[in-house]
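Changelog-adjacent note: as of this version, every example in the card shows the full chain rather than a window. The one below runs 509 residues end to end.
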Amino acid sequence: MFSVSSASTSSSTAAAEGSIGSRSRSGNRRYGQEPAGNGRGRGLVRAAAAVLAGGLVAAGTLVGATSAAADEAGLHQGGATAVLDGLKTYDSAVLRTGGEGGEANTTQELPAGLFELDVEGGGQLKTYCIDIHNPTQDRAKYLETPWDQTSLGANESAGKIRWILQHSYPQVDDLAGLADEAGTGPLTPKTAAAGTQVAIWRFSDKADVEAKDAHAEKLADWLEKKARSVAEPKASVALEPTAVSGKAGERVGPVTVRTDAGQVSVTPPADAAAGGVKVTDKDGKPVTEATDGSGLYFDIPEDAADGSASLTVQATTSVPVGRVFAGLTKSQTMILAGSSESTVSATASATWAEKGAVPALTARKNCAKGGVDITAGNEGDEAFTFELAGIEHTIAAGETRTVTIPVPEDQAYDFTITVPGGFSKNFRGVLDCATAGTPVPGDDVTTQSGAEPVPARTGTGSAGAEGGLAATGGSSATPVIAGVAIALVVLGGGAVLLLRRKKPHNSGE
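Full-length structure tokens:
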């Protein structure tokens, strides 16, 4: 039996917190966007329909799945993994909302500046927020993430945000020189950070926001005016694809290294040597170091028993400015402004068998389609079939196919994949592809400085954690959210995939 199940989907939790589908791209008068008005309620109704559709994907078909611990390597294409340490260098800003359709304009003072994150394995990151209306979660874990898997993927101003990062604090630490060039008057680290954050919010969220300090506001205006589009930076390190498959006696691959670092070390699994598995280049030469574009292969002995192995590439490097960091759980999306020498890594796995189906599976957020792509490859000599929403998809021998599992915006997902032989893989995260729109007038946008950490909550009267810049109120949507939560509990909480082998003559879809 080959099965995929949503073993511990957080659907009901996310719904109860008021995050499911409650986001829009509404803006404000300053940027010529449509007002939020009553759009939030309509958005929640649409989200409820989407969540219900997702919940109906083979509900109640949890058959043959085995539990597996969350495998971050399975969902992470590679790079830095870090934990939020709070908002450290900041001043104040004023956010304006409403003011359209005869509604009164409201203002909210909130902190604006640099967060710090501690990199697992060593190092520190400095980041700005690119999601003003979402809270941070205390000690949230963050993963380095490509732009197209975040709100920047659909943001035509994403390149201008990177320009701002390259031309302001902390990349430019000569504040006297920066102040002179921008004509701002004296700047401190706090006011420079605030002015930079304000300029970023104007592009990331289309927010009507101003720095409270006059010099910081001049910096924000100068950065906004001068910004030019700059390309997305390379990953600090990544592997493509993160899973391959083949037969014993073959070199299985290639797995291509993508890195901004000059060189990465290559480490095979500790138990691979005992089985004779080696990591080599295409000619079979053992590899211990690699560079950008290198192709890596798993050299599997002919007499190797059916099994799997993984390799890891690692480097100590500065993560490129402009890389996005998305929360593994629901937390404010960040963009990198500065990095110490930090430990970054990426992992890829190989599965092999003597005969039958030999699957390789990877997962990736697909913001353009609003879901998670499950890519299934089969280098075996038999087909295997999986069922999704009542539709069977057969992966023939030698075929690779991608199937998108719909996931509502802000929805937590958790897919456990069990392959023949008992090997399990887990993909989990949150689909966070859009910035939150301007909140409906009357909903609170509350803030908390980094001085007194408080776990962030979403809802009226809540407070951000460790400098969480804002929490979005949702009192008007509570009945709809509650209905979605109940429906998800009844339906089993999300997508369930059931996969099994089929003989080759059934290879049609």
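Structural remarks: The longest helix spans residues 39-55.
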